[in-house]
């Protein structure tokens, strides 16, 4: 498996946001996640895709 799964705190650290913010984004469907047991995990590729989708080009 080349696409590493990150915990919410690990993914939040990569995005430089608080884990609570990422939990809200997950609950609102702003970012895809994987549910394993009772844990929500985010693939590293989803973080890259999320950043790409939310990149704003200069005007």
UniProtKB/TrEMBL annotation:
Sequence intervals crossing the membrane: none
Domain Helix-turn-helix: 5-54
Pfam family, one: HTH_17
Molecular function in Gene Ontology: DNA binding
InterPro entries: DNA-bd_dom_put_sf (IPR009061), HTH_17 (IPR041657), SinI_DNA-bd (IPR010093)
Superkingdom classification of source: Bacteria
NCBIfam families for this protein: excise (TIGR01764)
The protein's name in its UniProt record: DNA binding domain-containing protein, excisionase family
């Amino acid at each position: 498996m080349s696409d590493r799964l990150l915990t919410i705190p690990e993914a939040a650290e990569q995005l430089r946001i608080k884990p609570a913010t990422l939990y809200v984004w997950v609950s609102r469907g702003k970012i895809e996640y994987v549910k394993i047991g009772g844990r929500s995990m985010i693939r590293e590729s989803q973080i890259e895709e999320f950043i790409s989708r939310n990149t704003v080009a200069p005007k």
